[in-house]
What does this fold into?
Amino acid sequence: MTEVKRFAAKVSLGVCLFFLRFDQPLCSNQLPDSDRGSQQDTMPENSPEPVGFFNWRTPTMGGQQFWTDVQFRAGWKIQHNVVTGHFRLIDTNNVRHAWGNELHCQQALESIAIEQELPANQERVIVLLHGLIRTHNSMRALKSYLEKNTSATVVDFEYASTRGRTADQAAALQKFIDNLGDQITKIDFVAHSLGNIVVRHYLHDLAQQHKIPSTADDAPILQPSRIPFGRMVMLAPPNQGSRMASLMNNSLLFNSVVGPTGIELGKGWSILEKSLATPDFEFAIIAGGQENERIIDNWLLAGPNDFTVGVEETKLEGAKEFETIPVSHSFIISNQAVFKQVVNFLDKGTLNAATILSSNDDESLLRR
It folds into this structure.
């Protein structure tokens, strides 16, 4: 019986990894881009002077697991390779225009911004964060929808989710947001799965940085942050950790695929959750799963689930609204009904699911 359970667990692992990697290229575990094999030993990453290398305008894949966004302007991105330590500047078509240290790429972007008259980011920015093992490509459909239905600058933050810990991803997010510009008057978040945990860790870190030490015995006073947060929509967030990750943390295969963050979501959750904040601004949660028909179900998880995260695991006290819809973990970020809920909440502060689906819509939207 034990062997049967082990075999079933391995099968479930394979299926879950398939769903997690649904948006990934078949060779994403290989060297991702033409410039990944840079000279790490000769890269003066922290040099106070701009240091760049000869550049061919080389097509890239825009960042696949090894890259984290540092700066964004009008679709152009400066990215950091977490393996080699070097930086690169890519355009809206993911063509590399410069590479070297960060200062070199920043100067290149400034020159191009003047030459091409690149507009600054809008005053309102919506930051999208993908989940574990995924890339910004998984949020492409949602990004397109938000760009058509809001007046905000929509930014899909790419981060190397399987390289480093959640704290590293949160620090990268903070740097990215700081680089958006002082003209920003409102920042909204829409995150999928692990992306929500990264945001919560970032908010915790931000609060700690703005504590004013108290000379009295009372608790430190929080100094307001200059960052104007608006609202947040959490899609299938493992807000209470991941039972699936815990079950698989004994597997070397699983740990090698998901990296340190996958371990933190499982057996390392008791430590990680101490560094997570609950947003002090309005947020809503949309979970995948269903109470009755249970078409989407993983028998390794208790209760309704989206095959990767249980509905109960998504809940977080303080949420303004909570919605459960019958979609899987991977397809919740490509669901048209979810898109409408996201826009409605960001703009009006309510998911308002009852009125979002018009008479011309079909309930099959919820299963797409």
